Amino acid sequence: MPGRISQVPRRRVLQVACAGLVAGTGTVGAWQWLAPGAAHGGSAQEFPARPAKAVTDQSFVHVIAHPDDSLYFMNPELEQSVRSGAPTITVCLTGGESDGRNALANTPGYPRLPERRPEFVRARINGLREATAQMATGDWLSPWKVETLTLLPGFQVELQTLKAAPQVQLIFMELVEARFIRVPRKESLRGLWLGVTPKLTTLVPAHSPVKRTYLYSRQQVIDSLVAVFERYRPTVVRTLDPNPTHRAVQQQFPGVAPELAGISHYDHQDHTTSAYFAQAALAEYWGRKHARPTAVDSYIGYEVSLLPSNLDAATTRHKVKILDTYGWADGKDCGDPAGCGDRKVGKRSKDVRWSNNCRTRAPGTQRWVQPLPDGRLAAFSLLDGAAHCWTETRPGTGGWSRPVRVGGSMLEGQVQVLRHSDGTLQLFSVRTQLPGRGRDHRRDVVTARQNGRTPRGGTPSFGDWESLGSPEADPERSMEVGQPLAVADKDGKVYVFVRDWAGNVLFRTGERGRDWTDWERLPVEDEPVSVLDGMDAVLDDKGRLHVVAADTKTVHHWVSESDGEPPQPAGSTRLPTASGPLSLAPLSGGGVRLAMRQPGTARVIVADRPENGRWRVTSECADIGGYGRVGLAVDGRTVVVAARDDAGRVRVSKGSGRPGPWHPGGVAHRFTPAVVKDARGHVVTVALGMDGSPRTVRA
Question: What's this model's pTM, rounded to 2 decimal places?
Answer without folding.
Answer: 0.93
